[in-house]
Design brief:
By secondary structure, this protein is mainly α. About 50% of the residues lie in helices and about 5% in strands. It has two domains: about 1-45, Multidrug-efflux Transporter Regulator, Chain: A, Domain 2; about 45-100, no CATH class.
Length: about 110
């Protein structure tokens, strides 16, 4: 298991962001020490973190991201939050493996 700082470095973000994601319920640590309140994560949780960051990059709010992660939202229903972006097709083709949890390369 990785301490929050180690996981933050591997995930390319700050510990403050991870604490916020924990508070929001987006990404809970696998365990929290009762002695010192350290948060511990696993490398397997990087896939969820990457999905969160991908939704963020496409302009989804944290509330929308939470909904997308917790519900089985069909990809056809995904829309860019910014009407000036014409990225519906890009989201569909880029997020299919991410949303489904598939491994591999996007062609």
């Amino acid at each position: 298991m990785l301490k929050i700082g180690e996981f933050a470095r591997v995930g390319g973000m700050t510990t403050a962001t991870l604490r916020y994601y924990d508070l929001c319920g987006l990404l809970k640590p696998l365990s929290t020490s009762q002695e010192n309140n350290y948060r511990y994560y696993t490398l397997a949780q990087l896939s969820r973190l990457n999905r969160i960051l991908t939704f963020k990059d496409f302009g989804f709010s944290l509330e929308q991201t939470t909904q997308l992660l917790h519900e089985d939202v069909p990809l056809e229903q995904l829309h860019c939050s910014s009407p000036s972006r014409n990225c519906r097709g890009l989201i569909y083709y880029a997020l299919v493996p991410i949303v489904r949890g598939d491994e591999g390369v996007i062609n």
